[in-house]
Amino acid sequence: MYKNIEKKKPLKLKEQVAYQEGQVVSKTLVQNELVSVTIFSFDKDEEISTHASGGDAMVTVLEGKGRFTVGGEVFILTEGETLIMPKDIPHAVYGKEQFKMLLTVSF
Predict the structure, then answer these.
(1) Which residues pair with 93 in a beta bridge?
(2) Is 42:93 a contact under the CB 8 Å cutoff?
(3) DSSP string covering the chain
(4) Which of 50, 51, 60, 80 shows the greatest Cβ crowding within 10 Å of its Cβ?
(5) pTM tops 0.85, yes or no
(6) Cα 10 to Cα 26: distance, rounded to the nearest angstrom
(7) What gap in Å lies between CA 51 and CA 35, rounded to an integer?
C-alpha cells in the first residue's frame, strides 16, 4: 500500500520531496481505489491549474505559504494549516512562495 518511503523508520514528510526551480514536484506515498496520498513541493509562482477531483481532497501545508482557490473562494494557508477541497468542486493551487503540502484524497 505505501510506496516510495521507508517503513518502520521515523521521517519528516517535508524532507521527502525537494524544491526544483520552476517546477511543481510530487511524490506519491499511497495510491489505491480508496485513497491517494501525495507530497508536493511548489517553487515560487508555480501552480496546478483549476481542476476537480473525484474525491474529497485534504491538503496540509508542511512548509511555506500556498494559495488555494476552491469554488472561486481564495484561501491562504501556511505551515500546519489544513483545508478540505470537496469532491467535484473546481480548485487550483498556487505557490505564493516556495511551499510544500501533503495531499490526501479519499474516494
Answers:
(1) 48, 68
(2) yes
(3) -B-SS-SSS---GGGGS---TT-EEEEEEEESSSEEEEEEEE-TT-EEEEE--SSEEEEEEEEEEEEEEETTEEEEEETT-EEEE-TT--EEEEEEEEEEEEEEEE-
(4) 60
(5) yes
(6) 20
(7) 18
